[in-house]
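agent: user wants the structure for MarR family transcriptional regulator from Metabacillus mangrovi. delegating to structure tool.
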Amino acid sequence: MENESKLKLENQLCFALYASSKELSAMYRPMLDPLNLTFPQYLVMLVLWETNGQTVKEIGEKLMLDSGTLTPMLKRLETSGLLQRVRSKEDERKMMITLTATGEKLRTEASCIPDKVAPKLGLSIEEYKLLLKTLKNLTIHLKQGGNES
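agent: tool returned. relaying tokens verbatim.
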């Protein structure tokens, strides 16, 4: 890449990922509004629908969120009746998060979302799978410190 084009915004991977993420979140909004969920809350629910009964730490690790960000979100989801936060009996320092019946029922309503999203992406199944694999590999590499292989 030529020196003068290195700093052009359009040539920055960081901006392309940022802009795509922002647009993707916005694309979900009309599908999540009827469920009364924000995009980050939807991600929390996905984690719990996959495995109900996890600690705040476990959820935070999967979503790459610290407890300072996650705890207020969990409190709002609890207030809306979708989950319960209960101190672990084995270790009172741990907060267990479990779905309520309402939170479990919401899974059925949300199950159509992935099918609605896929056609809006403008990707073939092969392109989707390749992009997903590439982004997962990028995340792993960056979590390891971004060291060259």
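agent: one observation worth passing along. The chain has a mean pLDDT of 93.
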